[in-house]
Design brief:
Blueprint (H helix, E strand, L loop, with lengths): L1 E5 L26 H7 L3 E5 L5 H7 L13 E6 L6 H12 L10 E5 L2 E8 L11 H9 L19 H18 L6 E4 L2 E3 L4 E2 L4 E3 L5 E3 L4 E2 L4 E3 L2 E3 L4 E2 L4 E3 L2 E3 L4 E2 L2 E3 L2 E2 L4 E2 L4 E3 L2 E2 L4 E2 L4 E2 L10 E4 L2 E4 L7 E3 L4 E2 L4 E2 L3 E3 L4 E2 L2 E2 L7 E4 L4 E4 L2 H14 L6 H13 L1 H5 L5 E2 L1
Parallel strand pairs: 1-2, 1-3, 7-10, 8-11, 9-12, 10-13, 11-14, 12-15, 13-16, 14-17, 15-18, 16-19, 17-20, 18-21, 19-22, 22-27, 23-28, 24-29, 27-30, 28-31, 29-32, 31-33, 34-35
Antiparallel strand pairs: 3-5, 4-5, 6-7, 25-26, 33-34
Helix pairs in contact: 6-7
Length: about 425
């Protein structure tokens, strides 16, 4: 069985979350879609934007570039699929119903107008190049009536704030699934630790609303407070007096301090000083300066609307903080207003009262916004990587240059007077 995960045009609408990562690598409720797909018994194939192909081959070697011709059927999965337990069960049910011999039977599952899942004969896909997969899939699915009840649960991300919403909606199910793994031991009521965890005896865990799960080789500092459901990934450091609460999922090798509530934090990100972060998404390799805080609630207590380019999108949510792309940085005492989007590789100072485009120095409250060349970020990346004993590869440099070019129009349309 082939399992082809592909990116469609919707990934562009998820910027800055997907500017530098495949959509299947977005974390939600402590899992990524690629984590679910690896659990399935199939030949995995990835079709991503061309500038991400080198990174995919290095960071996701389990994904092939070619379909297995010997497999009669190919399960096609949209890379924007939310990595929830319910979506995993949908995929498993589709696999269980694969026709044994009838190659004329095709199935498609949609979320709105987008293809979520499709079951297609391999022979109709096998000659497509990786970059052509999306178009070929859409061509083959055209005119097929979607399978009814599945369309209500096979859910896709549409906008960046959907990651925050989906994390809240699916966190409890996902974390309950995670603790079924034998690699965790229950050391107290609903407190689960993996091997190598160091937790100071003064740590307080409140598990009345869900479990606290700490992955391997993570250290939890003295006088910290953990209110479940919470997941802290491998190799993390939680500083003394930190408070991590309410559906927060932290990916590996991150440093966390202050108060964090209902957040998704990707790998290698530092928020290790005092300050509040709530109902937010942080990409990888982000650093928040000491005292950085964000607002996740309007003074009117009303619904938060997000601004994406020239599109104003109602979220239906009362609590939304910020969305920050990979490599973004904040200075000390930065204050981020409700529902703001901060682009990749931007450096932010003072008050963030508007969305921030990618690759800029943003000091709008001081009267200045300047463009940040990719060469500065390449040098910064090399220093950051060295601090974590990570080797900077040519593909990492190429990705930063590609991200800079892909976000050029974003800076032009931002409305900011850029000093180039």
């Amino acid at each position: 069985m082939n399992i082809l995960v592909f990116e469609d045009d919707g990934v562009e609408q998820l910027f800055p979350v997907t500017t530098g990562r495949p959509a299947y690598a977005i974390s939600c409720g402590s899992y990524r879609l690629i984590d679910w797909l690896k659990k399935l018994n199939g030949h995995l194939v990835g079709s991503v934007r061309s500038y991400l192909e080198p990174i995919q081959s290095l960071d996701f070697p389990e994904l092939s570039c070619h379909l297995d011709r010997e497999s009669a059927w190919t399960l096609v999965v949209n890379a924007r699929l939310v990595p929830s337990v319910s979506n995993l069960h949908c995929i498993e049910s589709v696999l269980a119903e694969i026709p044994a011999a009838d190659l004329d039977t095709r199935q498609v599952y949609r979320h709105g107008q987008s293809i979520s899942l499709a079951l297609l004969p391999t022979e109709q896909l096998v000659d497509s190049q990786p970059g052509e997969c999306r178009g070929r899939v859409e061509q083959l699915c055209a005119g097929i009536e979607p399978v009814g009840p599945m369309t209500r649960v096979v859910e896709l991300y549409q906008f960046p704030h959907d990651v925050i919403r989906a994390n809240l909606e699916h966190f409890s199910q996902n974390i309950d699934f995670r603790i079924q793994d034998d690699s965790y031991r229950e050391v107290a009521d609903q407190v689960f630790l993996a091997a190598g965890v160091e937790m100071h005896s003064s740590v307080v865990a409140d598990t009345r609303k869900g479990p606290v799960v700490i992955d391997r080789d993570t250290r939890i500092g003295p006088f910290s407070f953990l209110r479940g459901p919470v997941y802290v990934g491998p190799g993390c450091r939680v500083s003394e007096h930190a408070a991590v609460k309410d559906s927060t999922a932290i990916s590996h090798t991150s440093k966390i301090g202050g108060e964090v509530e209902s957040c998704v934090i990707e790998s290698f990100t530092n928020k290790q000083h005092h300050g509040f972060l709530g109902h937010s998404y942080l990409g990888s390799w982000i650093n928040l300066g000491a005292g950085t805080c964000n607002s996740d609630l309007k003074n009117t207590y009303g619904e938060v609307n997000m601004q994406y380019g020239d599109q104003r999108v109602p979220t239906g949510m009362q609590f939304i903080g910020c969305v920050m792309g990979d490599y973004a940085k904040t200075a000390i005492n930065t204050s981020i207003f409700t529902g703001k989007v901060i682009g990749t590789c931007s450096m932010v100072y003072g008050f963030v009262t508007t969305n921030v485009p990618s690759f800029v120095n943003y000091a709008r409250s001081f009267g200045q916004v300047t463009e940040l060349p990719s060469s500065v970020m390449i040098a910064t990346q090399q220093r950051m990587f060295a601090r974590r004993s990570v080797q900077q590869r040519p593909a990492d440099i190429d990705l930063l240059n590609a991200m800079y070019e892909r976000t050029r129009r974003e800076r032009q349309l931002s409305g900011e007077r850029l000093v180039l």
